[in-house]
């Protein structure tokens, strides 16, 4: 009897173990602010929805993760620049062209800074744009499907880091180069960097109807490193601001050589003026080679087009459109407050946060208060434009966002903290530690005219002891702060995918109602779609075999195929005939040298299979779809190359069920 | 107490199975036949007095948006043509007009069911198989294969029904 109850107790404690995995704040810790109310503030009851979406970049994972705030729950990883076997992105025939570049197919990139499209300076929730850093590209994610629908490569650029930021009405998505490179690329000595290398700032025009991208012009700036950027808003709308470092133009040991100048610059660029200039025939067309990849929601397929020309602008030819604002110590973040008046440069080797005034900048230009010039671009006098500095706020300021209530929140990488300060008086209001080495932070709408100042999300580079260890590689993290009070309150730690460089947040109500539930079969224009059972067939064209297949709970049609031979290239074009929400099906076949397909209702996807061995090979549904999921399977008979067996296909046996009247 | 333990253990075993151990069960050799139940379909259906698919119920309207529907005396041929097209596109993955397939044949369905019931089965299958006794029984007769909700509009479903009137 006693034993029994012990065992019962044991079983229950095992059960408890299983249910207790999610207690993120169970053993915390030194932070006295964590009280029981923190748990309540992030608790989203089962079945209820989060208040905000957070789109958090995956850094070296190349993807974009969708989280809910305040819960920190992960909903989806949207494949953007890296292949994703789970979703067949970059594996199926339809999405391979998305990853095409002038360097060929590239299965990876480093995704950094997502930005949500805006109208009149406020989030409009239509698209997220995000940059690929390594092989310069900008991607567009459609927020009705939460899929990457367009990627454009950026020529003349390298380390596409001061990207991707949208202007007030999403007229442009802007992509600035971090590394200076020879333009055009050519075989010269690296030592010839100074003066010969350029930093291209690309202005990508956005189609107001469909969000589509096209490079309008590239500004060939001096070969500094352009680190971060943000658009002006309000009165400063029409301007764009880029932080620079390595104004020394060093090409080696930058850690020392690019940290010599006491001040680098924020480059102020009047893009409206330049847009006007190029519209009137200004600029010069130069040969280029870059990929423009577009996914069509109706054909469920992407196409890749190589573009051969780009319009470049020499900044000295547009007087009054370019100024340098001296800013201390290799500034990283370049942030504009909701009013558009203040331009915040975070000198990452400084202890201060430097704030420039837009109105003072305009006055300084009028009064010609110049302190010199660089490559023909006027450098404005620091004192004439300086609004103020947040003094001795911490070590290593990186990036600032705003709450819309008159406060800025700046991350400090070296001292691992978030500091809240007041715009105008520049006084420090509060500081809270991060764990550890915070990079960027995000307040939903915090880089727009209308921030939703309820939460701030800090993204950390290092977590060390914050989570259960997982070998040498440990998770990166985000930390959520309640910023509704005078003092910030740390509410939650949660792990992130890859390295979270930056994020964009938006109230869930602004987009969740527009989230697509399925693709309508009647809109399916895939050239190999089988839109009903009558369209299913298998067609041979030389050594290529096309299978037009359908899937619905819980069978494939056809599910028996004969007449395929070793040496054939077999394309499975599979259409999911379901027209109900959340009924995807998957498929793969033994020995396929590619990923599964995961096909949404109404969608067609294709994978290629090159059978190498004679035999009868099964395929099956890879996504548990129904009570009869395990029955959702089929066979392909593969005969020797010399075989004369004709193609045949079937589903069920015709005379089997004739008992019906 | 012992039985409590047994039940608890069974409970845990079941949990383990339902968490992904299921694949093992399906490995049968093609010749395996259990005498008592053979291919469950045939035996079960023979035992039953009348199969759900043969049951005639001309009163139940089922569960769903269609509360009342009166069919005109004349069959509307325009509607039939449209319904036939919708049926071909949206339904033939599982239904053949005159023959049992994954699901039952719609032939003569209005001799067995009310028009409302048919419409509700098309428009509201998830709730039907949970709440309507006949729909529930049909799900079992057809091996648990669910009637998919193909999100037809009411007009399309109505046209499909008109098409069914021609299947005799």
Q: Can you walk me through this structure?
A:
The complex is a heterodimer of chains A (661) and B (168). Chain A has two domains: 40-514, Methylamine Dehydrogenase, Chain H, CATH 2.130.10.10; 521-650, Cupredoxins -  blue copper proteins (Immunoglobulin-like, Sandwich). In chain A, the strands form ten sheets. In chain A, strands 6, 7, 8, 9, 10, 11, 12, 13, 14, 18 and 19 form an eleven-stranded mixed β-sheet that branches. Residues 8-34 and 655-661 of chain A have low confidence and may be disordered. Chain A starts with a helix and ends in an 11-residue tail after the last strand. Chain A is 8% helix and 43% strand. Chain A is mainly beta. The longest helix of chain A is centred in the first third of the chain and has 18 residues, at 2-19. Chain B has 168 residues and is mainly alpha-helical. Chain B has a domain at 77-165: Cytochrome Bc1 Complex, Chain D, domain 2 (Orthogonal Bundle), CATH 1.10.760. In chain B, 45% of the residues lie in helices and 0% in strands. In chain B, α3 crosses α7 (154-165), α4 (115-123) packs across α7 and α5 packs across α6.
Give keywords.
heterodimer; A: 661 residues; mainly beta; Methylamine Dehydrogenase, Chain H; Immunoglobulin-like; 2 domains; eleven-stranded mixed beta sheet; 46 strands; disordered C terminus; B: 168 residues; mainly alpha; Cytochrome Bc1 Complex, Chain D, domain 2
């Amino acid at each position: 009897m006693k034993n029994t109850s012990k065992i019962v107790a044991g079983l229950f404690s095992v059960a408890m173990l299983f249910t207790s995995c999610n207690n993120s704040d169970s053993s915390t810790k030194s932070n006295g602010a964590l009280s029981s109310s923190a748990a309540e503030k992030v608790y989203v009851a089962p079945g209820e929805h989060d208040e905000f979406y957070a789109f958090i970049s995956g850094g070296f994972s190349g993807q974009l993760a969708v989280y809910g705030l305040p819960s920190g729950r992960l909903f989806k990883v949207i494949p953007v620049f890296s292949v994703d076997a789970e979703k067949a992105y970059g594996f199926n025939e339809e999405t391979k062209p998305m990853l095409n570049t002038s360097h060929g197919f590239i299965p990876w990139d480093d995704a950094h800074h997502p930005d949500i499209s805006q109208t009149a300076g406020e989030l409009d929730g239509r698209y997220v744009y995000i940059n690929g850093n390594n092989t310069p590209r900008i991607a567009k994610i459609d927020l009705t499907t939460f899929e990457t629908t367009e990627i454009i490569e950026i020529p003349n650029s390298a380390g596409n880091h001061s990207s991707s930021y949208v202007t007030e009405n999403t007229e442009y998505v802007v992509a600035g180069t971090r590394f200076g490179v020879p333009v055009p690329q050519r075989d010269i000595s690296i030592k010839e960097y100074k003066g010969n290398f350029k930093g291209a700032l690309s202005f990508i025009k956005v189609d107001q109807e469909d969000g589509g991208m096209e490079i309008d012009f590239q500004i060939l700036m001096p070969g500094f490193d352009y680190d971060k950027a943000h658009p002006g808003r309000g009165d400063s709308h029409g301007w764009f601001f880029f932080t620079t470092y390595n104004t020394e133009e060093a090409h080696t040991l930058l850690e020392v050589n690019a940290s010599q100048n006491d001040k680098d610059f924020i480059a102020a660029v009047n893009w409206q003026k330049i847009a006007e200039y190029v519209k009137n025939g200004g600029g010069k067309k130069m040969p280029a080679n870059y990929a423009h990849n577009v996914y069509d929601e109706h054909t469920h397929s992407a196409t890749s087009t190589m573009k051969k020309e780009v319009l470049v602008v020499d900044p000295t030819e547009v007087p009054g459109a370019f100024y340098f604002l001296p800013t201390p110590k290799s500034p990283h973040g370049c942030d504009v407050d909701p009013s558009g008046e203040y331009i915040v440069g975070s000198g990452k080797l400084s202890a201060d946060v430097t704030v420039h005034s837009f109105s003072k900048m305009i006055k300084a230009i009028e009064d010609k208060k110049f302190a010199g010039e660089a490559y023909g671009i006027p450098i404005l006098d620091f004192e004439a434009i300086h609004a103020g500095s947040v003094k001795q706020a911490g070590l290593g300021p990186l990036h600032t966002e705003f709450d819309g209530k008159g406060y800025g929140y700046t991350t400090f990488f070296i001292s691992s903290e978030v500091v809240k300060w007041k715009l105008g008086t520049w006084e420090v209001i509060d500081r809270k530690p991060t764990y550890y080495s915070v990079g960027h932070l995000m307040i939903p709408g915090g880089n727009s005219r209308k921030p939703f100042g309820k939460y701030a999300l800090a993204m950390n580079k290092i977590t060390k002891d914050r989570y259960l260890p997982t070998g040498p590689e440990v998770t990166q993290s985000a930390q959520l702060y309640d910023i509704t009070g005078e003092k910030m309150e740390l509410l939650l730690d949660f792990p992130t995918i890859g390295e979270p460089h930056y994020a964009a947040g938006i109230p869930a109500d602004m987009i969740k109602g527009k989230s697509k539930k399925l693709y309508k079969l009647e809109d399916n224009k895939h050239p190999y779609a089988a839109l009903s059972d009558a369209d299913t067939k298998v067609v041979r064209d030389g050594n290529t075999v096309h299978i037009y297949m359908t899937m619905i709970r819980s069978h494939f049609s056809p599910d028996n195929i004969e007449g395929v031979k070793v040496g054939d290239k077999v394309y499975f074009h599979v259409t999911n005939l379901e027209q109900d929400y959340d009924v995807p099906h998957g498929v793969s076949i033994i020995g396929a040298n590619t990923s599964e397909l995961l096909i949404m209702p109404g969608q067609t996807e294709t994978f290629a299979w090159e059978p190498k061995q004679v035999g009868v090979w099964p395929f099956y549904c890879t996504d548990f779809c129904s009570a009869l999921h395990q029955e959702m399977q089929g066979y392909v008979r593969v005969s020797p190359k010399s075989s004369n067996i004709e193609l045949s296909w079937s589903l069920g046996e015709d005379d089997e069920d004739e008992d019906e009247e | 107490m012992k039985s409590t333990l047994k039940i608890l253990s069974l409970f845990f075993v079941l949990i383990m199975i339902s968490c992904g151990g299921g694949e093992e069960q399906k490995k049968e050799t093609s010749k395996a036949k259990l005498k008592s139940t053979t291919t469950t379909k045939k035996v079960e259906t023979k035992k039953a007095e009348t199969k759900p698919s043969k049951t005639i119920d001309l009163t139940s309207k089922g569960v769903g948006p269609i509360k009342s529907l009166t069919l005109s005396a004349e069959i509307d041929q325009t509607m039939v043509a449209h319904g036939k097209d919708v049926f071909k596109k949206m339904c033939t993955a599982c239904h053949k007009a005159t023959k049992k397939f994954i699901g039952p044949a719609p032939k003569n369905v209005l001799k067995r069911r009310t028009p409302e019931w048919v419409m509700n089965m098309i428009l509201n299958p998830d709730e039907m198989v949970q709440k309507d006794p006949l729909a529930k029984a049909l799900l079992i007769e057809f091996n648990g294969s669910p009637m998919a909700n193909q999100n037809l509009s009411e007009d399309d479903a109505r046209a499909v029904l008109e098409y069914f009137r021609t299947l005799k």
